[in-house]
Each structure stands twice: as C-alpha cells, then as structure tokens.
Specification:
With about 150 residues, the protein is mainly beta. About 5% of the residues lie in helices and about 30% in strands. It has helices at about 15-20, 60-65, and strands at about 1-10, 35, 45-50, 75-80, 85-90, 95-100, 105, 120-125. The strands form 2 sheets. Strands 2-3-1-4-5-6 form a 6-stranded antiparallel β-sheet. It has a two-stranded antiparallel sheet with strand order 7-8. A hairpin with a 2-residue loop joins strand 5 and strand 6. The longest helix has 7 residues, at about 60-65.
Length: about 150
C-alpha cells in the first residue's frame, strides 16, 4: 500500500556519524539511504519513503549511531496523513517524540485487513480549521503496539 513519509535528521557536525546511513545497505530493515542537505550550516539529511513497510527500523538505526552530542540531534518525521512534522529527540538514550504545542497524535484502531504494517497514528493540529473533526483517540489496548518507524 502506498504511504508517503519523509524523515529529516538535523545534527550539527555529525557528518561522519551519519555517513553509514548515506550508503545503500541491503541488510537494513528499511529501504533507501539518507541524502545530505548540502550548504547547510547545521548538518541535515533527508529520506523519503513510498511504502509504510519500507521504513520499519529507521529510528532504531538512528538511535544506534555513536552520536557525539545526542542531546542536539533532532529527527523530524512526517507521514502522509500528518498535519505537520513530528519531532523526535533523545531522552534517556532513546529517540522519543517531543510534544509540540497545539498538536496531538491520534491513534485509532487499525482496520482488520491492515496487518502487514504498524500504524504510526496521525499528528493533528488542534488549532486549525479541521480541529473540530479531530477523531477520537482509541483506547490503548486497541492501538497498534508495533513501532512503525
């Protein structure tokens, strides 16, 4: 199933650390490679996915890199159904989503036919014109526990 998504990594002076993820590697659980954003003062890399199954494991691989300053690493994720990019940063050694004011990640129970890939939920703006249509957040026991990134 087609499901576009983008990943941006911002990390100053971490070119050598990100280098392994800029090369193709068939052993990865995710597909593609990061492209460096040239001419940026802050180091930046991007990656785009066309299918949801192609991105599984990208956060784990980013977490495993030997960052010089993990506290300064910012990972921005955007799934095609999100209103805006979500922000992930290191907390206690793991990448965790950072709450952004006036946004809410909404998880709804996945349809029964969708068992092939985890659902990341949708990041909605709570102050936009569509905020009145914000879907109800499903109970935790109905949410997909698998990490989609």
């Amino acid at each position: 199933m087609s499901r576009m998504a983008q990943v941006l990594v911002l990390a100053q002076y971490e070119d050598d650390v990100m280098e392994p993820l800029t090369r193709p590697d068939e052993a990865r659980t995710w597909h593609g490679r990061f492209e460096q954003i040239t001419d940026w003062f802050v180091g930046g890399w991007y990656l785009e996915f066309c299918r949801s199954y192609q991105r599984r494991g990208v956060l784990a691989d980013l977490e495993a890199l030997p960052w010089n300053r993990p506290e300064c690493v910012q990972v921005m994720l955007h799934d095609e159904d999100d209103d805006c990019f979500g922000l992930w940063m290191f907390h206690d050694g793991a990448l965790a989503e950072v709450l952004i004011p006036r946004t809410q990640r909404v998880h709804v129970a996945p349809p029964s036919w969708r068992s092939d890939s985890p659902d990341p939920g949708c990041l909605w703006r709570t102050d936009g014109p569509d905020s009145r249509r914000l879907p109800a957040h499903s109970p935790e026991h109905e949410q997909d526990p698998r990490l989609s990134w």
